[in-house]
Structure prediction request, 275 residues.
Amino acid sequence: MSKLTAITSDFARAIEHLGTEHFVPTIADVLCGMVNADDATVIVYGHEELPTISFARPLAGKEESSLATYLTGPFLLDPFYRAAAYDQQFGVFRLADLAPASFRSSEYYKNWYKHCGYEDECGLLIRLANENFINISIGLTSEGARFRVGQAKLLASIYELTASLCRRHFLEVLEAQKKTTLRERMHRSLAAFGASVLTRRERQVVELVLLGHNTRLIAEKLGISIETVKLHRKHAYAKLDISSQAELFFLFMEALSHWSGDPDTDPLIAYQGGQ
Prediction:
């Protein structure tokens, strides 16, 4: 059987399961098989709520709580999530295509990503209806494994078919709502973090630090010098009473856990009031 025939047969099997609980596991297996990947996770980003896991398997080396933790806040720093939610980028992307060069030294990586069981991933970001989208995350788990450009191109060749099937399947799963949602408010919480004590530029620097950008990249994004970035970061850390990126990451997560949900309120206020 040729590779094309095998892929056609696999997709025909997935189509048979449209609208059933078997569709998502089937399409995940098909995509993994195409690029000899080790695992897949399907995350649904609904317009009205926090993300939900549509499909995931227990994986050797994956901490059981890692995905649950991701859903409570770290997803805001996920390069794949930000590409779709903030930059409206949909398609097939490798982690290397979206993450900053310093990603693997970021606190997001150290405190969450490296515990999720994946060494590298390739995501199919698919827009659904009314600001909903999904990420079919295809993972490699072997130490040092990386997706090749050719593997991403192979997944890209069947992206439109996959996206069309997923839109049909999730049409009845997600109902769009136009009101301000919890997920939208959490977006604002990241931008508002530290607003009660930091200047606008200090907040911008802090947000980019949380997202894993190094000093040089922050300077480029904000159009300021590296020394100015260092100065803003120093002032911000002093005002927040922290001294490292690790402390910043944990402060943000702690503040988010105390946050009232008011998009116009600095999450730090509730956190500091509860101490």
User: Anything to note?
Assistant: Confidence is low (pLDDT under 50) at residues 175-180. The longest helix spans residues 226-240.
